[in-house]
Protein: Cytochrome P450
Organism: Zasmidium cellare
Amino acid sequence: MVPYLTLAFAAIVIAYVGHTYRCFQINLAAAKKSGIPYVCMPVYTFNTVWLVTHTLWMPFVERLPRSWTEEWIDLLIPEFLWKKKHELFKKYNSDILIIVSPGANTLYVADADVNSQITARRNDFPKPVWMYKGVDVYGKNVVSTEGANWRHHRKITSPPFTEKNNVLVWQESLRQAESMMAGWTTKETEVSSPVWTVATEAMRLSLHVISRAGFGVGLFWPHEKSDTKIPPGHKMSYKSALETLLENLIIMILTPQWLLKYSPLKMHKVAYQAFCEWGQYMREMYNDKRAEVKSGSSRDGMDLMGALVKGAGITEESLKDPEKGGSQLLTDDEILGNAFVFILAGHETAANTIHFSVLFLAMHMKSQKRLQEDLDSILGDRPASEWDYDRDMPRLFGSMCGAVMNEELRILPPVIGIPKTTPKDQPQGLIYEGRNVTVPGSCYINLATAATHRNPKYWPHTSEEDLVDFRPERWLLDPSKENGNTDANAYEEEEGLDFDGPDKRPDTAASLFRPQKGAYVPFSEGYRSCLGRRFAQVEILAVIAVIFKTWTVELDVSQFMSDEEFKTASQEKRQEAWEKANARAKDLLENGMMTIITLQMRKGKVPFRFVKRGCERFKA
Ligand code: HEM
């Protein structure tokens, strides 16, 4: 019996090795034909088994002779794209590169022209939708669909993203930012206590903004009022259901729903309860909208749920007489799926940008000072309640405030690799540096945003190190050189989204440096570019303006010098402590970042102090 089992096992292993070798040969032959430089690997880094077990194997791989492994060993780590950035391309002296493995060929791109060609040819380079299954927890949506189905979702979800509705985003962001600051400081504060929670509170702020501006649901800060009331029929408040769901999203994504439902594990029970509760709240909102439509009343504002209900073809007539109404254009699950994806796509990305802008500015006090001077000249002494969207927003967008946001998104784009693919058996031609190349069929593609953003071909820089550094001033144009556009007409270009065409709006204000098309892609480009780009920009600029108009953000040095010591320390000693805090922050930015849904600091936190302007403790 045993020899049979051994034989069967040996046969399976031999068949597996043979199959793997054959797949590798096929992929290698396709890469050789492509005309694109390639590097070979023994495993596909994003194979699920490898992803889960790679830390077990890596110590063995590291013991193999270096001459065997040096080409590919670094590429076995799932975070390699972030670790390597543009170095990966520099090594092969090419801004497009295929990584060949038995599991798949993947084309990595850090070339602006190639990025643009790929994003402009939606049908030739579709999204690998299976990678987005995780965002389908409630149903299919505009992020996770392709082809005609996606067009349908995009057509229905685009209308609320208008300039008119961005005014609401602006107002809500100003209000939320003031509230966030009130949680850390008072009117009398000169120097706040150490604040460790900027990342989590920025997340909360963004969630409040999308919830209120997008869905009309007001959420509150703990110091404002309690919103933990649980309505009849529920076991959790809206806020705690949503927060718990988002905190446990990875569990939701990785565990099949039937298992979640019956699993005795506490983490599964918590995640499943939040999933059911939030779903129930959204279904109630959906039913309220249907009732509104039926009664003929409508609501002002962004009203994303209202737009989904109307877009789905639910009308007064169809509800009163279902016979006449025809079929519903989005299923109930898809309506919920889209509502959820707006919350998901709309909060973490913007929150990261706010958090890291604060961090970079605390590390670059000179840039912070310049930002504050620009804020003073744009906003004067007016309180935030008097800031005006039409007047102030374009000027913020075109000032150091816009430069800070752009530079933060250049260095740390929340999505560091935008996935695309080529259809099975349909190789696709591209032009790279004036010559024709062919991307094999069934090839994964990764538009490497962080690498493109560091490609010296496209960016004003003083040295290669300068490109790695946060220097928002690189976006400020020499005022003596005319840029051809005024802020006013640049703003008009931003108006209106053509749901069915590629997004042609420029990413930055006319008064700032405008990178070549395809070189700056934090929001992607073309047909599938970010629907909420303007929403996010408005929110981020409003929040930065509120914080830095009144406060200077400093790195907290209390890990290196106690408050008592600080009081009596010389300026030189204080500066030494600051350098240590700065080195720690740099190390976390270099080694503590990881992508789960978006790129975040996951291996530590940086504490800050909010200091009333004029009471700064460190030299700019
Ligand atoms: C700094 C903030 C943001 C960044 C950097 C960002 C980035 C992106 C990127 C790179 C994509 C393309 C993803 C892909 O192709 O896989 C995308 C798509 C999308 N984003 Fe954003 N996003 C931000 C904020 C927002 C906000 C605030 C919303 C909504 C309120 C939003 C809604 C969407 C939607 C619906 C899509 C899918 C569009 C489509 O496929 O047609 N995003 N975003």
Summary: Residues 2-34 form the longest helix (33 residues). The pocket of protoporphyrin IX containing FE is lined by residues 127, 142-143, 154, 210, 342, 345-346, 349-350, 353, 414-415, 418, 522-524, 528, 530-532, 535-536 (CB under 6 Å).
